[in-house]
Design goal:
about 50% strand, four-stranded antiparallel sheet, mainly beta
C-alpha cells in the first residue's frame, strides 16, 4: 500500500472522512455531564465559630461507579480580623458532617484588629465516589482561629461546578 502525505492546507475540514481501523489508547477521560450552581452573589451568614457552616452545595448523579467527579469551586471570603485573620474552608462529600475530601486554611497575616479583608478560596479536586446514586458536594467554612473575629462567604460571588469524567 502506498503512503501519501496530506498537507493540512489541501484538506477541506468541512468534509466528512470515513475511517476504518482501530485507535488504541483513546479510552476513558470523556466528559459525561456537568452541573453548576451558576454564580451565587448573596452573602452567607457570618460565622463566629470554628465549626464548619455550609456555604454552597450541589448534587450530581454519576452514570457509572467507575466515574470520577471533578469538583471546581471558587468563593470569596470576607474576614474580620481580631488578633489574626484566618479562615478554613473544607470540601465534603455529603453535608458538612459528611466525608471531608478537601481542605483550605489561610488568611491575612499579620492581621490588624478590626480590619476587613477579602481572599479567594479555591477547591479543585478529583473524587471517586464509586456510586451511581445522587452525590452531594458541600463547601463549608469557619473562622480559622480563636483570634479571628468573623468570616463569611461574600456577595462578590461563589461558584461550584461538578463534572463527571468517564473511566
Amino acid at each position: 500500500m502506498a503512503l501519501s502525505k496530506i498537507q493540512a492546507e489541501s484538506m477541506n475540514l468541512a468534509d466528512t472522512y470515513a475511517f476504518s481501523g482501530t485507535v488504541s489508547g483513546a479510552g476513558g477521560g470523556k466528559l459525561l455531564q456537568a452541573v453548576t450552581t451558576g454564580y451565587v452573589t448573596t452573602n452567607t451568614a457570618t460565622s463566629t465559630s470554628t465549626t464548619q457552616a455550609s456555604m454552597i452545595s450541589l448534587a450530581i448523579t454519576p452514570s457509572a461507579t467507575s466515574s470520577k467527579i471533578l469538583i471546581l469551586c471558587q468563593s470569596t471570603m470576607e474576614i474580620v480580623a481580631g488578633s489574626s485573620g484566618l479562615v478554613t474552608s473544607n470540601l465534603y462529600r455529603g453535608t458538612v458532617s459528611g466525608t471531608k475530601i478537601g481542605e483550605y486554611y489561610g488568611g491575612i497575616i499579620p492581621a490588624t484588629s478590626g480590619n476587613t479583608s477579602y481572599i479567594v478560596v479555591s477547591h479543585n479536586i478529583l473524587d471517586a465516589p464509586s456510586t451511581t446514586n445522587s452525590t452531594t458536594y458541600t463547601v463549608g467554612f469557619a473562622k480559622g482561629s480563636g483570634g479571628t473575629t468573623s468570616v463569611r462567604g461574600h456577595a462578590i460571588g461563589r461558584q461550584l461546578t461538578l463534572i463527571e469524567i468517564g473511566a
